[in-house]
Amino acid sequence: MAAVTIWNEFRHEREDDDVAAVYPDGIHATIADALAADHTVQTATLDEPEHGLTADVLESTDVLLWWGHEAHDEVADEIVERVRERVLEGMGFVPLHSSHYSKPFKRLMGTSCSLQYREDGASERLWVVDPGHPIADGLAESTELPKTEMYGEPFDVPEPDRLVFVSWFEGGEVFRSGCCYRRGNGRIFYFRPGHETYPIYENETVRRVLRNAVAWASPTEGSPRTFGKRD
Amino acid sequence: MAAVTIWNEFRHEREDDDVAAVYPDGIHATIADALAADHTVQTATLDEPEHGLTADVLESTDVLLWWGHEAHDEVADEIVERVRERVLEGMGFVPLHSSHYSKPFKRLMGTSCSLQYREDGASERLWVVDPGHPIADGLAESTELPKTEMYGEPFDVPEPDRLVFVSWFEGGEVFRSGCCYRRGNGRIFYFRPGHETYPIYENETVRRVLRNAVAWASPTEGSPRTFGKRD
Amino acid sequence: MAAVTIWNEFRHEREDDDVAAVYPDGIHATIADALAADHTVQTATLDEPEHGLTADVLESTDVLLWWGHEAHDEVADEIVERVRERVLEGMGFVPLHSSHYSKPFKRLMGTSCSLQYREDGASERLWVVDPGHPIADGLAESTELPKTEMYGEPFDVPEPDRLVFVSWFEGGEVFRSGCCYRRGNGRIFYFRPGHETYPIYENETVRRVLRNAVAWASPTEGSPRTFGKRD
Amino acid sequence: MAAVTIWNEFRHEREDDDVAAVYPDGIHATIADALAADHTVQTATLDEPEHGLTADVLESTDVLLWWGHEAHDEVADEIVERVRERVLEGMGFVPLHSSHYSKPFKRLMGTSCSLQYREDGASERLWVVDPGHPIADGLAESTELPKTEMYGEPFDVPEPDRLVFVSWFEGGEVFRSGCCYRRGNGRIFYFRPGHETYPIYENETVRRVLRNAVAWASPTEGSPRTFGKRD
Fold this sequence. Notes:
Oligomer: homotetramer
Largest sheet of chain A: 5 strands, antiparallel
CATH class of the domain at 3-111 and 179-217 in chain A: Alpha Beta
Structural class of chain A: alpha/beta
Distance between the termini of chain A: 40 Å
Number of helices of chain A: 7
CATH topology of the domain at 3-111 and 179-217 in chain A: Rossmann fold
Strand order of the largest sheet of chain A: 6-5-7-8-9
CATH superfamily of the domain at 3-111 and 179-217 in chain A: Class I glutamine amidotransferase (GATase) domain
Shape of chain A: globular
Order of helices and strands of chain A: EHHHEHEHEHEEEEEHE
Helix content of chain A: 25-40%
Strand content of chain A: 25-35%
Radius of gyration of chain A: 17 Å
CATH architecture of the domain at 3-111 and 179-217 in chain A: 3-Layer(aba) Sandwich
Low-confidence stretches of chain A: none
C-alpha cells in the first residue's frame, strides 16, 4: 500500500461541458477511484496554493501521478524543481497522456518530449511488448481502446530503460505507450492512454495498469546517496 | 566499404516456383545487388561445404547478413559456434526476417526469439522510432510495404540496446522490427522486413536500411580483449 | 518469501581440506543459512541424479542460485536447457562468482563471459553504484572484503540492464560485480563476490545482497507469452 | 573531420598561477592542440559575448566540448537552452571532468549529476570496460594517470547507454569515467579525466580519447524529426 498523490490540472472539467460529462468530479477523482482499494490516495490541483504540492505533501508521497494539458506553463518552476528533487530521492512519478509535455517530465528527461498527434477518436490497441514486467501483471496480450486521441512516433524521449507497451492506431501510427525510467532513486513510468473527452480512465485494463504502475514505482529502501567532499 | 558476406538458405528458391518467380537467382543475389555499389559482396549458402562459411570466409568478413527459414536445424552447430565467435571478435551480424529463429541469432540472444505471425499479405508500415540512428539515415518517417507477412509481439528477445523501427500491421499488430545489440565487439541488427514470396528486398527503403546496417555493423578498431590469468 | 534452490557443484569441499575447513557442509549450506530466515530453501548438487534439478524441482523453484567452478563441463546440456527455459518462463537466476563460466549463464548471455583474474588474497571494496536499486537495500556505500580472488575487466557480458556494484581491488583492477539482466520473464543477477577458500558467504553484507537478490529476482505474474500462428 | 568548438570557462588560468603554469594559454588551447590534426577547431569562453556560443557558432558546430568548474552559475540559461536544443538536433556534446556540474549537462541528464571527490593528487587507473566501443579505439586495456583529483561513486546520472571507462583510484574508490548517452539526435559523452592543476590533457591516452569521442559524437544524417499535429 503506497501513499499516492494524484495531481490534476483540473481546468478542462470546469470549463468544458463535454469534459465535465465524462469526468464530473475531475480526472483526479476517477483515477483516485481506480487506486483507492489498494492505496492511500490524496489529490492536488493546479489552482490550490503551491498547486497542492507543498513540501509536506511531497515528503509524504510515495508515488505522484500527474495529469496536465492546457496549462503546463502555469506550473511554477519552484514546484517543478521540488517534484524533481523528490523523484531523485525516490518518489515514484507517473505522468499520464498529455503530461508528456508537463514541466516535471520534460525536466527529468532532458529532451523535448515532442510527438505527433491527431484527435480523431479512432481506435487504439495497446500491446504488451514486455510480458514479464510487473506493470503488465494480469493484463491480456492486447487491449482495445475504442476511441482515443492518436499519439505517433517519433517520441523524443531518452531510450526507455524498459519499454512495456506499444500502441497500434487505426489511422496507421504506432507509439511507445509505456516507458520506464529511473532517475536518481526514483522510478518514472510514462503512460500514454488517457484523454479529457474519452472515458479512458474508466477502462479496466487502464485502471489495472495504474495500480500496477503505483506498485512498481513505489520507493525502496536503497543505500546511501552521499555526495561531496570525501576524506 | 565493408567486406560483406550474404548467407542464404537458398532452398525455397529452388523448390517453389512462386519463390523462384520473385527471387530467380536467390534472395542472396537480390540483397547482393542492393549492397554491391557500396560494399564488397560475396555470398554463401547452406548446401555448400561448411555452408560456405569456412574459417577463411568468416575471417575476411566484416558483416554477415543471414537469411534462413525452413532449414534452420540443418545448420551445423560447429558453424554456428564459429559465427558466434567471430561476432564476439567484432564481425557485424544482420539476421533478416525469419532468421529470428536462426541458430546464430538465438545463440547470441540467449532467449527463444519467438513471436506471433500471420501470412496474410496485408500491409505493413515501418516507422522510424529513433530518427537519430545511423540505420535510419535518409529514410522517410515511415514506409509502407503493401504486402507482407505479419510478425507480432511479444518478441522474446533481450531489450534492444537501441530500437530503431516499430512496424504497424493492417491486421492490428505491432512489432519491434529493427533491434540493435552489441555482443562482445560485434554489432547485431535484427531487421524484420523480408519474405520469400513478396519482393521486399526490391523496396528502395529496405535496400537503404540494408546498406545503412552494413555501415553501422562494420567492425571498429577497439582496444585489447585480454582474458585469463593476470600477474 | 520465495522458494529458493541453491545449486552447488560441491566438489572442492569434498576434495580439498582447505575448502572443507571454510565450508564444512558445502558452500550451499552456508548460503542456505543466509537465506533461510526469509525464504524456503532447498539445495541441489552436481552429483545427484539430474544434478538435483529435475523438472519438478525447477517447476517449484522461484529463484535458483548457482555456484560452480571446476566442473562446469560436467553439467549436462539437457539440464542447462531446462534451466534456461525455466528462466525464460520467469524463474530468477543468480550465478555466483566463478559461475560466470557456468553453462546456464553463458547460454543465457550469448557471450564468452570471460574476464581476468588473480588469486592473490588481496582486498576488495564493493561499491554501490546504483543506490536506488533494491539489491542495494540496507547496504553501506561500500564494503571491504579483506581477502578475495581478483576479477578484472574486461568482462565479456552484454551491457547490463542495471549495474549495481563495481569492485575496487587492491592490486589496481576494477570489475562490474553486480549485473542485472532480464531474459524472457526471468530476472538474472550475476554477483561476483564468493570463493571456495575465503569465507565470503559469511560476510553480512554479502548475505544481505543474496537475500535482496532473491527478493528482486522472484517471479511476478506478468501477461501472456503467446507465440506462433495467429488468426 | 568534424567542426569542433571547445568551450572553456577560462577563469582559473587567468586567476591562479599554478593553473597558468600548467595551461598557459588556457585548457581550451591544450585540448585544441589534441584535436587540430584531425578536426577543424574553434574555441569559445565564458567571458565572450554570449559566452562565445552565438546561434551561428552552434549552428556550425558538429561537436561541442565543455570545460567548466568555478563559474557554472554564470552561464546564462538562454545559452544553456540553445546548447540543449542543438544537441537534440544532433550536435555532439562532450562535457569534461568538473563539467559534470555544468548547466547543459545537468539539463540534458535531468538528475543532480552529483558525485564524491577528493583533491589528493593520488593516482588513477582508467580501465576500458567496453573494448568494442569506438571511443576505446587504439587504447591499452588500462592507462595510469599518476596525479589526479579523485571522483567517486555514487555518480547521480541516468544509467549510461554504454559505459566505456571505469576508473580505479589509489585511495580506494571507483568511478564510471566514460558514459555515453543519446538525447534526441545528439550524442553525449561524459569523460572524467582532466583537472586544472594536473596536466591531464597532455596525456596521450586522454588525447586519443578526445579525438575518438569527437568522431563518435559527430552528427549523422538521420531521418525526419517531425512533431505536432498530423492529418
